[in-house]
Write a structure and sequence with these properties.
Blueprint: H1 2-9, H2 14-39, H3 43-66, H4 74-95, H5 100-121, H6 129-133, H7 141-160, H8 162-170, H9 172-177, H10 182-199, H11 201-204, H12 209-220, H13 227-252, H14 256-277
Amino acid sequence: MHEFFSILLSGDVPFVRYALIASLLSSFPLGMIGSFVVVKNMGSIAGAISHSVIGGIGLALYLQIVFKWRWVTPQIGALVFAVLSGLLLSWFLIKGKQRFDTVVNSIWVIGMSLGLIFLSLTPTYTDPMSYLFGNILLISQQDLILVGILSFVVVFVVIVFYPQLKAVSFDEEFSKIRGISVSLFSVVLLLLVSITVFLMLQVVGALMVIALLTLPPAIASMFHRRLSSIMITSTLITILFSFIGLMVSFLANLPTGPVTVLILGSAYLGVVLLKRIIPFSN
């Protein structure tokens, strides 16, 4: 542990410090948006978005190598596909002419399949593991700036439109009576989920975003009923376990994403079992 803190404070190994800062910055939107995801039962939607971004990553790498479009980075591809998936899901959700669960599953598998096909078509060998399971130690200073900007945007929008987002999440009919545009704020919420999913790609990867989005709010909801309290507690839990996951993975020389999810999942199961033995008052 002393070695980890020494390296963290050392200027010789900046990528560890970048990884920690990225985890802390993304914990705020993750705790907030994750609470909406749990309250509104949007886990499958978040999963569809997180898997669809693999298509954007694969396409970006293909364009970079085959067509020499150097400016099309995997981050840009992932962000574009995340936003497009959010908009597409919003459109189907508002129109409501198709079974929404079928649409969600279709976007899930089509996006992932596109990504794997583009990766296979890329002439040089491309290892998809860092995109599927994350590699937070690869975060650069430029990535850190983007994470900071997008995290600020998500937190700012949630704070400004908190009453509307809360109303839409709990009771859409009552929201309509109050004059709140359910369609508009459903789109806003899905776009916020899309951006948050993108923020977590390098931390835990596309395949494990759902765990980090849902487990902290799930733990927090065992102790609180108020959405604001769930958000605050969920953010603190995310900060804590992101730090622990980074430290353990660094010391054990293991991938950060799976380690963080494993520790967080164990904590969730522990709280569930403890609550069965000692019921907590909410």
